[in-house]
């Protein structure tokens, strides 16, 4: 409450400024492990489209991370955002399609846009950069998040959600996210301002290696006039050179495959400075390097190519020239020893990674975080009532 009050008081006392026409998104740096400490908070890394929302007296504009206007593509979401109790604002978030398990499904998101059925998409808000004449970009993250939480506290619309933050039990949180099939975590320094660039103040930790690649060619069976056997992938070097980075089988849904084929433009010469060598029984067709795809893979080889790649999706929200090999920054974060306890808002949870429900993979830490999340709703109903604790040291089947 103190933070909310301070933000509100500063907004009243400071000189009002004009609403910016454009704000560039802050981007996260890939790291090898999640740093911990009092200045770090964590959120789920959503598998969706990054979206920045500009509100000006009821007029809503939705921008992708590259500044493209996607407002007309999401009319229902625009209506929900226009109803927020605010005159002017810039809100940072992610648009996702949730499956029946309430988990982001990127394939479903792409299908929603391809079929123009975006009414059920959800906007997860995680930052507030401007509010009613007050530029919050120089304000510390914790205060921006408090102001965002206050803004959304009375909103009862399933299209808009607040991204939950976590400050403890990061290792078990990442483990749970990976078991659920999520992308990973985003970590943020709570004491830092909003920076309109890639910054070490925001970091990302992924469950699997994955990143964007640019399609520089395709392969098909020799003699075939149509069809795509695999995509030839590339990344841009810092000096502007386009490097071959391996291939991946073209496994997309029919609607996405048709979109891919429509966007590919053949060229006469290989765009790579190190093109792959021809193989018997396979024809290589070079393409203008403009189509971006997302691929998960096992590892990078010593020759700079990926192994065991799996094509995940087309990425029309990413610019080809921004695609480079992502190299995780090595952090000094100390990893907990096996079996060590994790804390959830104070209490130490011993053997936090122990699985208590084999059918779902839920751990002791997951159970503790659940009760912590519902405590405000649960405690009033059990106050002054006799309770009995049933211990299950061997899990629910013990």
From TrEMBL:
Catalytic activity: ATP + (deoxyribonucleotide)n-3'-hydroxyl + 5'-phospho-(deoxyribonucleotide)m = (deoxyribonucleotide)n+m + AMP + diphosphate
Matching InterPro entries: ATP-dep_DNA_ligase (IPR050191), DNA_ligase_ATP-dep_C (IPR012309), DNA_ligase_ATP-dep_cent (IPR012310), LigD_ligase_dom (IPR014146), LigD_pol_dom (IPR014145), NA-bd_OB-fold (IPR012340)
UniProt keyword Cytoplasm present: no
GO BP annotations listed: DNA recombination; DNA repair
Enzyme category, top tier: ligase
PROSITE patterns in alphabetical order: DNA_LIGASE_A3
Location of region: Disordered: 322-343
EC number of the protein: 6.5.1.1
Cofactor(s) of this protein: Mn(2+)
ATP-dependent DNA ligase family profile domain ranges (all copies): 114-206
GO MF annotation terms: ATP binding; DNA binding; DNA ligase (ATP) activity; DNA-directed DNA polymerase activity; exonuclease activity
Chain intervals with Low complexity compositional bias: 332-343
Keyword list, A-Z: DNA-binding, DNA-directed DNA polymerase, Exonuclease, Hydrolase, Ligase, Manganese, Multifunctional enzyme, Nuclease, Nucleotidyltransferase, Transferase
Keyword Cytoplasm recorded: no
Family annotation (NCBIfam families): NHEJ_ligase_lig
Family: Belongs to the ATP-dependent DNA ligase family.
Protein name: DNA ligase (ATP)
Taxonomic source organism: Paraburkholderia youngii
